[in-house]
Amino acid sequence: MPLLLTSSSLPALPRPLAAPSKARVRVAASAAASAPDGAGAAATGFPSFLPRAVERIRDAAAIRLAKRIERVPVQTGFSGSPILSSCVRPLKQQQDAEPIVLLHGFDSIGYSSCLEWRYTYPLLEEAGHEAWAVDILGWGFSDSTRPPCDVASKREHLYQFWKAYIKRPMVLVGPSLGAAVAIDFSTKYPEAVSKLIFIGASVYTESPKQMTRMPKFVSYAGVFILKSLPLRFLATSLAFNKTPNEFFDWVQIGRLHCLLPWWEDATVDFMIRGGYNVLKQIKQVKHKCLIVWGEDDGIISSKLAYRLHQELLDATLRLVRQCGHIPHVEKPKEAAKLVLEFLERDKVEKTDRASSVTPVLTNS
């Protein structure tokens, strides 16, 4: 998310240098501010389109995943040219297995990019699964030509991404607001989804109608606050059961995508168009679902996990003890274990059903 403060050591100089003049400092600062976004990142192994602040991150898992982020072209009906869309894709695709597609949450909890999966993604990959971490249109690290960011556009973009690169039914994983994205998508394109996994699902909040009538300057003021360090610190502290030792670094990671030039416009566009409202779509979900929830979620009460479990037609509920809103960040091993057990159990059930079918022999 946020900014990182690091100290760097300078090589010893043969003789003291004169202090730089204020004019020289201003010129240097101006040059740094006007440098192309991501300039210099490629030299450190990061994709050139990432903000330079990525170089200040110290979280090893975040660094490894950030270096794997790439942009792939996605053609949609609402954009004249392909949208260069950010994602982490698997090292190897497995045509005989269900791909796992990981979405992300919204900025109000401090995370809104594929870097949210920095701890759990490797665990799924190590277990032999084909995993994709995909940035939802208007968030993450996609290109700076901002397209429409309403719900319909986000849905179509994800569908076209799936159609172009995944091409078979996927296990769609949605944390927080990503759960609303997954529900909205699966009810419109059920053929693209095999199963659904919701983590701390934000699906029972309705966007206030006043938001769509709000003057733009008010929306931009709200987005400015959303991007601010004080709010990011607060969101991060609320999202976890215990304050992590890596707290400041986690704030930096979650705020990183906000430094892209189009982020404010995209977020305001999403807000004034009304956001997600999937209350009526929950009972339309036909897929088998897993619900994962932190028992100590301080952002969305775990009581809503039971409500969601009752309203879905075919769902399994699993609570993670001593855990807050983002189990896949706070307790990645437990989160990965629950996902893998869910997928393995379904695989066994399918095998049992297939073996219980007695072939009928006929004489012709």
Automatic annotation (TrEMBL):
Superkingdom of origin: Eukaryota
Pfam families in UniProt: Abhydrolase_6
Listed Gene3D superfamilies: alpha/beta hydrolase
InterPro entries xref list: AB_hydrolase_1, AB_hydrolase_fold
Domain AB hydrolase-1 per the UniProt entry, residue ranges: 100-336
Protein name: AB hydrolase-1 domain-containing protein
Organism expressing this protein natively: Urochloa decumbens
